[in-house]
Amino acid sequence: MGSQIGVALVHRDHPLRVPYETQWSWLTYFFNGTARAFMALDIEAMARTDTARRAWVMDWLRGNGLPVVETGSYYVKSLQLARPAPSSRVILQRSNLVRLCFKPPIN
Question: Which residues of 58-81 are buried (b: 16+ CB within 10 A; e: fewer)?
Fold first, then answer.
């Protein structure tokens, strides 16, 4: 099941219909193409990838002795440390707050 994401209705007698017919057609093709792309997504495969990426980030945090917060985005984590950050990560620290951005190597 699918539906068109957007539609622009232009009355056949509207003075801008003929001069902008190419743009109206492009808009229709664009929205139809976008709808087809969304209908082709494999939601279950995306969920499996998301679960694997989340697990990779949690393992990385645990392996580096950092707090593990399961909620929120796994792409960006902000952590307030109880002790100073290791010297290799001090560049990521500002006012005892460390921000980490992840791109897990799982496709």
Answer: eebbeeeebeeeeeeebeebebee
Structure tokens at 13: 């007698």
The number of CA neighbours under 13 Å toward the Cβ of 9 is 1
Report the candidate in 29, 38, 27 with the shortest Cα–Cα distance to residue 3: 38
| pLDDT 10s digits, 33-88 | 888 888 888 999 999 999 999 999 999 889 988 888 888 788 888 877 777 666 76
H-helix or E-strand spanning residue 43? helix 43-63
CA–CA gap between residue 26 and residue 105 (Å, rounded): 37
Structure tokens at 52: 């694997």
Residues 92 and 101 sit within 8 Å (Cβ to Cβ): no
Task: Report the DSSP pairing between strands 76-80 and 93-94.
Answer: unpaired
